[in-house]
Write a structure and sequence with these properties.
Keywords: Membrane, Transmembrane, Transmembrane helix. It is found in: Membrane. Belongs to the amino acid/polyamine transporter 2 family. The protein is mainly alpha-helical. The chain has 13 helices and no strands. The protein has helices spanning about 15-25, 30-40, 40-70, 75-120, 125-140, 150-170, 195-210, 215-220, 230-255, 270-305, 315-335, 340-370, 380-415.
Length: about 425
């Protein structure tokens, strides 16, 4: 860094603690109430705490690994250290697909918001196209510095909208989907009896809600004092866990089996419009950011070492627009072909969230400790080894079982249709 250059390591621990939730709190919070509906109130809270604890350990390992290997900036660098050049490519592809699937989930959520606000004024498939076009236009802005400030407002709008619904369900007579006649009493259950597939799907949704771990690599890289990373991490994880549990428990307690996914439709029609109206900017920002980032990675990989990378040449623009357009199209196809919100977010959590948030961090601990010349077989090393192996095996089981269960749920929704079939014109805001 030159004397007049920007300071890329100027992030304090408080700024880090504020920045971390932005990487995690998003679409996942909107699926938490349906998780509690699936497994029951007490098991749901226990799952949130357990998975949140595992995710916190994984996030902690990110900081430890970064302190030992200062050259690591992203999870693809970790892949290269663990498995060589092939590992870098595998991890890079997994990360790009993960972000693209999140973008697709956001586009689907945008179509739900449009339907809620307009009473299904036009075909849902057209709303998805509109979401994709707007996303492509803003994601094509070349510099992240012009986009990233929007993320603060985006994360805030989603959280505010979720709390609007949380407050509304506590004061309203009954949830929107409940019978309109007769006395109403919530049918929430402390314990439910989900099938294997339903339980796996619920776990995958929670993993999705905590799967911001890959974003923590660049965050810790820009800290003034990375030794304060753990303090910031504990603050962050406490905040988001309290938020998830509060929103999930209150909405499910008052709505019972009539909770919707996304949860913003759980209150009455007026609150539904208000909450989706408040959340809409955040949904757009999510789609834009998670389209821009994988597109930027593809763009840089294609033009790395070429003068066209930083020059305003025809090749530069064709490559950049081609990258953003490709990611947008893939995200659009995902949003249109898997048109049920909770099915899609649980699929993302199972297929990519586990790999990038659980197994990889177990491998990172073993990489640093298994073959170290300073290794001694004490109790701490044994516990660390057993835990790391457990996270790898458990994460692999959850990835396989969760993906299988999500595919079953998607197939079931195709069979039942009910307004949620692919490229459908039916209203998807009423589920």
């Amino acid at each position: 860094m030159g004397d007049n250059g920007p300071n890329y390591r100027n992030l304090g621990w408080i700024g880090t603690a504020v920045l971390m939730p932005k990487a995690q709190i998003g679409l996942g919070v909107l699926g938490i109430p349906s998780v509690l509906s699936s497994v029951g109130l007490i098991p749901g809270v226990m799952l949130l705490l357990v998975i949140g604890g595992i995710a916190t350990w994984s996030d902690y390992i990110v900081g430890v690994f970064k302190m030992r290997h200062r050259h690591v900036y992203g999870i693809d660098d970790v892949g290269e250290m663990l498995f060589g050049p092939i590992g870098r490519e595998i991890f890079a592809v997994a990360l790009c697909l993960f972000l693209t699937f999140i973008s697709g989930s956001a586009m689907l959520s945008i179509s739900i918001a449009f339907n809620a606000l307009s009473n299904n004024a036009i075909c849902t498939a057209i709303f998805v196209v509109i979401a994709a076009l707007v996303t492509f236009a803003f994601a094509s802005i070349r510099t992240l510095s012009r986009i990233s400030p929007l993320a603060w407002a985006g994360a805030a709008s989603i959280i505010i909208s979720a709390f609007i619904v949380t407050i509304a369900v506590g004061v309203q007579d009954r949830p929107a989907a409940a019978p309109k006649q007769g006395a109403w009493q919530s049918d929430y259950k402390l314990f439910n009896r989900p099938s294997f597939a339903e339980a796996q799907k619920a776990i995958s949704t929670i993993i999705f809600a905590y799967a911001g771990t890959p974003a923590f690599f660049p965050i810790v890289s820009e800290m003034r004092d990375p030794r304060q990373y753990t303090k910031a991490l504990v603050t962050c994880q406490t905040l988001i866990s309290v938020t998830y549990i509060t929103i999930g428990v209150v909405i499910y307690y008052y709505c019972g089996t009539y909770v919707t996914s996304p949860a913003l439709g759980s209150a009455g029609p007026t609150i539904k419009k208000v909450s989706y109206g408040v959340a809409l900017p955040g949904l757009f920002v999510t789609a834009i950011l998670w389209t821009h980032l994988p597109a930027k990675y593809v763009f840089v990989r294609i033009l790395r070492g070429s003068p066209h990378l930083t020059a305003n040449t025809l090749i530069h623009w064709i490559t950049w627009i081609g990258s953003t357009l490709t990611i947008t199209i893939v995200a659009y196809i995902i949003a249109s072909s898997v048109p049920v919100f909770d099915d899609l977010v649980s699929l993302v959590g199972a297929l990519f969230g586990t790999f990038l948030t659980i197994q990889t961090m177990g491998m990172m601990w073993l990489f640093d400790n298994w073959s170290s010349s300073s290794r001694d077989h004490n109790r701490r090393w044994l516990i660390g080894s057993l835990w790391s192996v457990f996270t790898i095996l458990a994460g692999t089981y959850l990835m396989i079982g969760g993906t299988y269960s999500c595919i079953l749920a998607i197939v079931k929704s195709y069979r039942e249709s009910g307004g949620t079939s692919a490229w459908s014109c039916a209203d998807n805001s009423s589920s």
